Amino acid sequence: MYTQALNTKETLRPVAPEDMEREARFQARIDAEEKIEPNDWMPEGYRRTLARQISQHAHSEIVGMLPEGNWITRAPTLRRKAALLAKVQDEGGHGLYLYAAAETLGISREEYVEQLLSGRAKYSSIFNYPTLTWADIGAIGWLVDGAAIMNQIPLCRCSYGPYARAMIRICKEESFHQRQGYEIMLTLCRGTPEQKAMAQDALNRWWWPSLMMFGPSDKDSQHSDQSMRWKIKRFSNDELRQKFVDATVPQGLYLGLTFPDPDLKFNEATGHWEFGEIDWSEFKNVIAGNGPCNKQRMKQRRKAHEEGAWVREAALAYAQKRKARREQRAQAA
Ligand code: FAQ
Asked: Which of 173, 184, 256, 297 is the most buried if burial means most Cβ atoms within 10 Å?
C-alpha cells in the first residue's frame, strides 16, 4: 500500500486487511481535500514523512538566522538594521511555529532539537553558504526568501492541518522578507558602480544554491511521489524550480544584472525560461555536511543551545512551581 514508498523494514511487513481498509479511507479523505488533524488515524509513513519534513523546515528557519544575523551589527543604516533585526526575529518565530506543528505528531521539541544538534537531521542546503558582503543580505531576501515562498505557498494547502495553518502566517512574513531583499538589490543597482558590482557578485554566488533549495530533480527525488499522493506536496521539485526561475529572471533583468548561466534563455514556444544543468555534486556535497559553512553553523547552534540551558531550566522550574500552586489551591478548595 501507500506506506511501502517509505521503504523501511517496518513498512515492508505484510499489511493486514483492516489496515488496508483504514489506509483506503484515509486516502479517500485526502482525495476529498479534508484536513488531517493530530488525533486522526494516519498511516505511520504519513506521520514519519511529516515529522521529517516539518522538523527539517523548522531547523532550516533556525539555522537560517545565522547567515543574516552575521550582518545585524554591520547594516549600513538604522532603517536597514531595524528591518534586518525584524526579519531574523521572524525566522526564529517561524522555527517555533513549525516545531509546535511537528510536536503534534508525537515527537517532542527536545527530541527534534537533539536530532539537529547530533547531525541526524537535515536543514536546507542554502544556509551553508557564507554572507560575505551587505549585498548578500539583499540576495538572500530576494532569492532565498523568493524560493522559500514559491515552495511554501502550496504548503498552505498541505493535507496536515497544523502544518498548513502554520504556513499561512509564515508565507505572509516571507513576502515582506522577499520585498526588503529586492529593495536592497534595487538600491545597490541604482547606486555607484562598486555597489552594482557588489549586487552582481552576490547574484553570481547565490543563484545556483537558490535553485538547489528546491531539492533533487524529480527523477532523483525519493519522497515526492508519495508526498504528492498524500497532498503534503502539491508540486514536484522541478515544477517549483521552474516557477521560481520564470518569476525571478525578469526581476533580475529589471535590476540590470546578468545571471551566471550562459544557457539561460527564454523559450517563446513554452513561455518558460530554460536554464543550464545544476551541479548536483555540489548539492550532494553540501547536504553531506561538506559545504563552506556546515561545521561553523552546527558549532554556533550547539553553543547557543548550551548557553540557553539556564533559560530552559528556569522556565521548567517556574512551570513546576505554578503547577504545584495550582494543585495546592485545588486541594484547598
Ligand atoms: N537541502 O525526496 P526529496 C527558508 C533532502 S526555509 C537539504 O525531494 P522532499 C526560509 C531531503 O530532505 C527553507 N536537504 O525530499 C528562510 C531528502 O533527504 P532525507 C527550507 C535537501 O522532502 C529564508 C533528500 O534530499 N524549506 O528558506 C534539500 O520530498 C531566509 C531527497 O529529497 C523547507 O524545508 C535541500 N535543499 O523534498 C529562512 C520547505 N532538498 O530527508 C531564513 C519544506 C532535498 O530523506 C532566511 N520542505 N533535501 O534524508 C519541502 O518542501 C521539501 O522537504 C523539499 C525536499 C522540497 C525541501
From this structure: 184
